[in-house]
């Protein structure tokens, strides 16, 4: 997936699309991540100032949601389901292996709706059921 390079001007243009939204913090953070691949450190004060809220409020939302990244993504995006059904069939063990091998690519997610085929993983937006490290490595190619 190709992302735009970070710039404050581009970020401000994105925020302008949310000017009339109620409770826009999460939407703003998601927009930033969708555009730049992650939420740049300058986004917190930028969002806070734009919507006239505290930096703490923006930071709280940013750190609450596991899908939001504060570092640039790796070459691939690997989302591992760590919800209860996937945990019951080895998701946490798989998570340790994947995060050890691909630390800048792996993130936790909660339920892809593929519970019968857990552990479930998404690699670059493609769902993998009964995931193993070798299946993930193959999907990255």
TrEMBL record:
GTP-binding among the record's keywords? no
Q: Report the GO molecular function annotations.
A: iron-sulfur cluster binding; metal ion binding
Endpoints of the signal sequence = none
Q: Tell me which UniProt keywords the record has, alphabetically.
A: Iron, Iron-sulfur, Metal-binding
Organism for this UniProt entry: freshwater metagenome
Q: What SUPFAM superfamilies does UniProt report for this protein, alphabetically?
A: Thioredoxin-like
Keyword Oxidoreductase assigned: no
Q: What is this protein called?
A: Unannotated protein
Where is coiled-coil annotated?
none
């Amino acid at each position: 997936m190709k992302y735009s390079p970070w710039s404050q001007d581009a970020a401000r243009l994105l925020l302008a699309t949310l000017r009339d939204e109620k409770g826009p913090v999460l939407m703003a953070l998601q927009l930033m991540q969708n555009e730049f691949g992650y939420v740049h450190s300058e986004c917190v004060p930028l969002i806070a100032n734009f919507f006239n809220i505290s930096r703490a409020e923006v930071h709280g939302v940013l750190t609450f949601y596991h899908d939001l990244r504060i570092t640039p993504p790796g070459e691939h995006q690997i989302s591992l389901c760590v919800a209860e059904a996937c945990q019951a069939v080895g998701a946490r063990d798989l998570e340790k292996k994947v995060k050890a091998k691909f630390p800048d690519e792996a993130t936790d997610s909660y339920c892809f709706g593929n519970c019968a085929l857990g552990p479930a993983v998404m690699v670059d937006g493609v769902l993998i059921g009964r995931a193993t490290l070798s299946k993930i490595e193959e999907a990255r190619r």
